[in-house]
Each structure stands twice: as structure tokens, then as C-alpha cells.
Amino acid sequence: MSKGRRPDDTIVFEDNGLSHSVPVYRFGSGSPRVLITAGLHGGEVTGQYVAFRLIASLSGLRHDPSGEILVLPRCNPSAFRRLARTSPFDELDMNRIFPGDARGTPTQALAAEIWGLAQEADYIVDLHCAGPFSAPYTLAQYEEYPHCRELAARLDIPVIVQSGGSEGQLFVEAGARGTAAVIIELPGGGPEGILDLSVADDTEAALRRMLQSLDVLDGDVPAPNPRFLGPLERITASTEGLYLPQRVPGEVLARGESPGLLDDEPLEACPEGYLIMNRPPGYVFPGSSLAAVAPLVESP
Ligand SMILES: [Zn+2]
Predict the structure, then answer these.
(1) Which domain holds residue 236?
(2) What is the pLDDT of residues 43-74, one digit of tens each?
(3) Mean pLDDT, to the nearest integer, of 171-185?
(4) Cβ(217)–Cβ(211) under 8 Å?
């Protein structure tokens, strides 16, 4: 991946026989500053692939951007190596510990380095994966923060889901400090490290158009028209049985409509809204994750 261009910088952590290094790619200088991160969760590979594709495409620019674009395509290399959410060094979830701790564990120290770059950014887009069966969506605290809503609306991703926000998430901590910060959740990831190439292409194009709309890259683009949705509601199995999905992610479920059948019966009390995720056919058990729906809301 991206063998053509070497990183402009590397964040290195070495301690007591442990080491990891995070490549940093820098395009242009000055303001605004746009930070694009991927792979805070190591197994979420579609986001990392998008970031490497973006690096390749920005490397072909004929002149520098108006402002600075910083891309960190693989923020958690030791977690990536085992295609897992966390690093084997300390098992900490990197996206719950920002602003990090320079004198802490390997993941805390790496988070502190990334936070240092985040503090200088005007815009942050953090790329993640929501599992192989998800539709793509932007995740933002758009109700709380107009600056985050404004950035989310520049992304040509079909829907924007309101985030509950957890303490220590990069986009939450940055958003609370006044930086426009969002997540893009993409299909892919999981223990097999699955990539969704077609969504990755669309997402890389959406990032470039976002950079054009910010006047960081040349070219006029029409404003996208993403749909604003409420927070995700997850649907789990109440009994053991055979689940057969009947709807596909990206469809809208009417009130009372079930995304699939569990032992030939529709699921009860399903929320109405945009179907974000629906698992493939399989035997499931009480508590198994089946689907996720985000309610439609009036555009804020
Ligand atoms: Zn993630």
C-alpha cells in the first residue's frame, strides 16, 4: 500500500523492548489544517485503505493544497497486526483514552502524540469500520456542536447519525474543544480484516470533495445533501433461532416493519428508520446483534 510515497514523519514509541511506529503524511502548510486519521481501531481496515488511497491521490497533485492536510493512515499498528480493536501491549481502546498520556502505556503515549496533532487541526475526520454488514455513515455530535454539523454536511456520505459520544473519543474530545470533528463509519473490518472496495472508492472521492468545499483543494463541487438521523438503535435476538434478513442496509423501515425473520416470525417492536446494519442469515442466540436502525429526523 502506498509504497510510492514515504511518510513525511513517523511517530515512534519505544520502551522496554516494545516499539511501534505510526506514519504521518503531510501535504501543504498553513491554515486551515485538516487531520485525517484511520485505524485507531487496528482491525478497521476499510478506513485505513481509504486513507492510503487518499495519500496516493494527494501525492499526484500538481501544486500544494491551500492549507495543510495531515493523514495518519494507520494510528494503531500493533492492533492492526492482529486485526483487532486493541493493541496487545496494553489492551486499551485507543478511541476511549484521548487526550492520552505521554508517560502512560504504549497506547496512551501514542494517543497523546496524535492528540498533539489534533489540537493544531481545524477539521478532523476519523475513519472507522462498523463491521462487514453495515452501510456507510458519518457519525457526529451534530445536535450539540454546529461546527461538527457543518463539517458532516460537507461529506457526501448518504446519512449522518447523531452520536451519543463516549468520553475519550478523539472526535468527541476535539469537538468539545471547538474543533470540527466527525467519524466516518464504513463497512468492513472484523477478525478477517475485510475491505469494502467500492465504498472505499466513494469515500476517498467524498474526502477529496470535502477538501475542495473547504477550498483546500482546487475545484468547485456541489454541496452534498446527506440525511440527518437520530442515534443508532440496536436490535438483538430475544430467543435462539434461525435469522433470515429480508431488508438490506440503506433501506428505510416503516413503523412496525421487521428487518428479517427469526424462526419465521418478524421481530417485535422494531424502531422505524434507516437500516444501518442487518446481519446475514445464521443461527443466533439471545443477545446476538441482528440489526441497527437510526430514526429519521427533520433536518436540523
Ligand atoms: Zn472504530
Answers:
(1) 232-294
(2) 999 999 999 999 999 999 998 999 999 999 99
(3) 98
(4) yes
Residue 300 falls inside a structural domain: no
Residue 124 CA, ligand 1 centroid: distance in Å: 15
Residue listed under C-alpha cell 480493536: 85
Cell of 45: 481496515
Q: How far is the CA of 42 from the centre of ligand 1 (A)?
A: 8
Measured between its terminal Cα atoms, the distance across the chain in Å is: 40
Ligand 1 centre to CA of 131 (Å) is: 9
Contact status, residue 39 vs residue 82, Cβ threshold 8 Å = no
Q: Are residues 222 and 245 in the same domain?
A: no
Span from the CA of 205 to the centroid of ligand 1 (angstroms): 21
Round to whole Å and give the CA distance between 103 and 83.
26
Residue 2 has pLDDT above 50, yes or no: no
Q: Are residues 272 and 216 in the same domain?
A: no
Which pLDDT value is given to residue 5?
84
Instruction: Work out the mean pLDDT of the chain and round it to a whole number.
Output: 95
- CA 186 from centroid of its chain's CA atoms: 6
Ligand 1 centroid from CA 94, angstroms? 9
- Kindly give the distance from the C-alpha atom of residue 130 to the centroid of ligand 1, in angstroms, as a whole number: 7
Cβ(202)–Cβ(184) below 8 Å? no
Which residue from 85, 165, 156, 171 is spatially nearest to 124, judged by alpha carbons?
171
Residues 256 and 192 in one domain: no
Length of the chain: 300
Query: Where among 227, 251, 271 does a domain terminate?
Result: 227
Task: Report how far ligand 1's centroid is from the alpha carbon of 37 (Å).
Answer: 11
Number of domains in the chain: 2
| CATH code, 268 | 2.40.50.100
Instruction: Give the C-alpha separation, 175 to 150, whole Å.
Output: 12
